[in-house]
Amino acid sequence: MNSRILSAALRARPATVRRIVTPSFTAVRYSSSDAHGQESFEAFSQRYVAFFEGAQDLFEVQRGLNNCFAHDLVPSPGVVEAALRAARRVNDYATAVRIFEGIQEKVENKQQYQAYLDELKSVREELGIDTKEELYSS
């Protein structure tokens, strides 16, 4: 009797066939680094100096820093100077200090980091920016 009920229930429901439709297009995703292709270091520097000179709020400055430091190179002192001025323009001292931490992580050795500090000493003094080491040395 159970088998008759089961077979009746199976016959009562029509089998539905699901048709799988595949899209006829292919989505292509481009990352932001693909848009610039093989950009020279000078073009990279000019692009980010112009970006930081035009940055009007903290979000823009931090977004520019994230994009700039994501590349496999150390930004030029001109880019760093523009970023420092932008951070101070939007009144964010912490971001200015963090820029030097980013440089310290990107360079290969302490001598290169010291060369950046020496190159940017006048800018640091003008803007009143200390490094993390200077802030926590006392």
How is this fold's topology laid out?
Layout lengths: L1 H11 L28 H14 L3 H13 L6 H13 L3 H14 L3 H10 L1 H7 L4 H4 L3
Helix pairs in contact: 2-4, 4-5
What percent of residues are in strands? Answer: under 5%
Report how far the terminal alpha carbons are from each other: 90 Å
Helix/strand structural class: mainly alpha
What is the number of helices?
8
Shape: elongated
Number of strands: 0
Helix content: 55-70%
Order of helices and strands: HHHHHHHH
Low-confidence stretches: 23-31
Average pLDDT score: 83
Largest sheet: none
User: What is the radius of gyration computed over CA atoms, rounded to a whole number of angstroms?
Assistant: 28 Å
Structural account:
The protein contains 8 helices and no strands. Helix content is 62%, strand content 0%. The protein has helices spanning 2-12, 41-54, 58-70, 77-89, 93-106, 110-119, 121-127, 132-135. The chain has 138 residues and is mainly alpha-helical. The termini are far apart.
